[in-house]
Design a protein that fits this description.
Elements: E1 11-15, H1 20-31, E2 35-40, H2 55-67, E3 72-76, H3 82-96, E4 101-104, H4 119-147, E5 150-155, H5 168-188, E6 193-199, H6 206-220, H7 227-235, H8 244-255, E7 266-268
Helix pairs in contact: 1-2, 1-8, 3-4, 4-5
């Protein structure tokens, strides 16, 4: 597939872009003509129960964008670190002049009951999912507000609406993202900036395969191979599996000119 042009010359930033949903979003935006800064931490925090994307994954995503005729800028950044985020935004603006679209996709999960959860597990999930969304919005907005336009697409989750076992901290963080999205949408609407959230149900990414599914299989006493299907049947409204492309289609839609009057939405996929 080659670039089609509905987002021609738009500048996008996608966090957590090395693999999974972030990689899918980055490629989908690039196919529509956007130049994409692909951002990832490229290391695994000690408290994580599964491996994060590596620098080689980040660079591969950039190469894949270039292979379809797009432009990519791979950047290593910890979204929970204010200095990292400030520098990442500065680098994108220095290279391409501005930021039109910010996709806050970076996220992490650790599986634990509340009584067994460590403070560091709680902090990691809150810092990446919620604080990281705040920091990236803050520094991108400093540029968007000057131009009086921009699109911010945050990543919520079904877990931010419906309680999922062993995910209290993750659900709390994503519920925070939902309310943060709606509050920020009201704050910046008069600048011509839209703020929405896409909130996936169960998607079979590394997070699901390596963290959520094994824990739920043990909790529900079912084979691990059946856990993803069981998750979808219990928590996805349609009971169907959700693909990365299903979610990326909504991300692209929220970035298009046709949706310029939609803001403050939580779109469940």
């Amino acid at each position: 597939m080659t670039v089609s042009g509905r987002l021609q010359n738009r500048i996008a930033v996608v966090t957590g872009g090395a693999r999974g949903l972030g990689r899918s979003h980055a490629l989908a935006l690039a196919r529509e003509g956007a130049r994409v800064a692909v951002v990832d931490i490229c290391r695994t925090p000690q408290e994580s129960t599964y491996d994060m994307g590596r620098k080689s994954d980040l660079e591969q995503t950039a190469r894949d964008i270039e292979s379809i005729g797009g432009q990519a800028l791979p950047l290593v950044c910890n979204v929970a670190d204010q200095d990292d985020v400030r520098e990442m935004v500065r680098t994108v603006v220095e290279k391409w002049g501005h930021i039109d679209i910010l996709v806050n996709n970076a996220g992490v999960i650790s599986i634990s009951s509340v009584v067994e959860m460590t403070e560091s597990q709680w902090d990691l999930v809150m810092n990446v999912n919620l604080k990281g969304t705040f920091l990236c919005c803050k520094y991108a907005l400093l540029h968007m507000m000057n131009r009086k336009e921009g699109r911010i697409i945050n990543t919520g989750s079904l877990a931010g609406r419906d309680a999922i076992p062993l995910n209290a901290h993750y659900g709390a963080a994503k519920a925070g993202v939902h309310l943060f999205t709606q509050a920020l949408a009201k704050e910046v609407a008069h600048y011509g900036i839209n703020v929405n959230a896409v909130s996936p149900g169960g998607v079979n990414t590394a997070m699901m395969e390596r963290a959520i599914a094994p824990a739920l299989a043990a909790l529900w006493n079912i084979p691990e191979a059946d856990a993803y299907r069981a998750f979808c049947e219990r928590f996805n409204v349609s009971a169907r599996e959700v693909t990365e492309q299903d979610v990326s289609n909504v991300v692209v839609w929220l970035a298009l000119e046709e949706t310029r009057n939609l803001t403050g939405l939580i779109v469940y996929v």
